[in-house]
Automatic annotation (TrEMBL):
<dbReference type="InterPro" id="IPR037185">
    <property type="entry name" value="EmrE-like"/>
</dbReference>
<feature type="transmembrane region" description="Helical">
    <location>
        <begin position="249"/>
        <end position="267"/>
    </location>
</feature>
<comment type="similarity">
    <text>Belongs to the EamA transporter family.</text>
</comment>
<keyword id="KW-0472">Membrane</keyword>
<dbReference type="GO" id="GO:0016020">
    <property type="term" value="C:membrane"/>
</dbReference>
<feature type="domain" description="EamA">
    <location>
        <begin position="10"/>
        <end position="143"/>
    </location>
</feature>
<feature type="domain" description="EamA">
    <location>
        <begin position="158"/>
        <end position="290"/>
    </location>
</feature>
<dbReference type="Pfam" id="PF00892">
    <property type="entry name" value="EamA"/>
</dbReference>
<keyword id="KW-1133">Transmembrane helix</keyword>
<feature type="transmembrane region" description="Helical">
    <location>
        <begin position="156"/>
        <end position="176"/>
    </location>
</feature>
<dbReference type="InterPro" id="IPR000620">
    <property type="entry name" value="EamA_dom"/>
</dbReference>
<keyword id="KW-0812">Transmembrane</keyword>
<feature type="transmembrane region" description="Helical">
    <location>
        <begin position="217"/>
        <end position="237"/>
    </location>
</feature>
<feature type="transmembrane region" description="Helical">
    <location>
        <begin position="273"/>
        <end position="291"/>
    </location>
</feature>
<feature type="transmembrane region" description="Helical">
    <location>
        <begin position="99"/>
        <end position="120"/>
    </location>
</feature>
<feature type="region of interest" description="Disordered">
    <location>
        <begin position="300"/>
        <end position="325"/>
    </location>
</feature>
<feature type="transmembrane region" description="Helical">
    <location>
        <begin position="127"/>
        <end position="144"/>
    </location>
</feature>
Amino acid sequence: MSTNRSTWLAVAALVGATLFWAGNYVIGQRAVEAIDPLSLVLLRWALAFAPLLVIAQLVERPRWREVARAWPWLLALSAFGIVGYNLPLYAALEHTDAFSASLVNAFNPALITLAAAVFLRERLTPLSVGGVLIALAGVLVVLSDGDLGSLFHGGFGTGELLMLVAITAWTAYAIVGRLGPRLPPVTSTAVQSGVAVVVLAPFSLASGGPELPETGAALGSLVFIVVFPSVLSYLLWNHALTVVPPGRAGVFLNLITVFTAVFTILAGEPWTAAQVVGGAVVIGGVVLTNWKAFRGTGADPGPAAGRYSGSPGIAEGSKARSSHE
């Protein structure tokens, strides 16, 4: 296969992955109307576990003893990335719209860059600092709906606050992933999903068992979330990273917010100028934060450039380099 064709196929894979991750916000908002967040997370990863495990065995043929020895890291990664990210995300979608949630999530790469500087001693350039501050300003515009003064007397909305919890958990996931052993990406995600199911199942049973979809629409939403954001997006992203450097791939994650905005408009749902302006500022700040990586220069683009960029499933291999998220 020619290099140009391989590159274009990789780009198509990146676009497809981000398209499906954007769908997780839009479809997730519909799903939580019929299925509570705990049940949704449990069912999502319980149903995705077997396909991921089979794919891992067929494609990666992992050394399971080495995987088993990494259990403390996999437990921590599952706690932060599967449970800690997904639960507040779906809970947030009970209180805010998909577009607003994706806008807050767009700040995650900048937050990871900042955390990497604090905890991993990674160097922050003046441009990176400026990008983080600009992205933060964009998030504040979104949170305040354009009225920054309202943050001082009204605080954050419940949905937006839950999204801040979600991206904080994903940031912790990114940092832990950088410190842990390298594992095959699909294998790592499969094990993390299995751990999450084991951890969440007792809580679900204690509350009466998981809430199952009772309508065709609810079932369809669950199937979409399992098949596309949980399995296909992840595989597309990992395929693309065999051709495209992580730093350049990372810029495509900004399409999640763009696609979510398009879905919002097509669905006829309301949107505000503050969301559009704030979202543009956030994305601009993230691009500045990772400018060197996006231009394809530098040896290691860092966690925010594509390895751990704040989308469900982009665990670039938990130093398992599981590309996505």
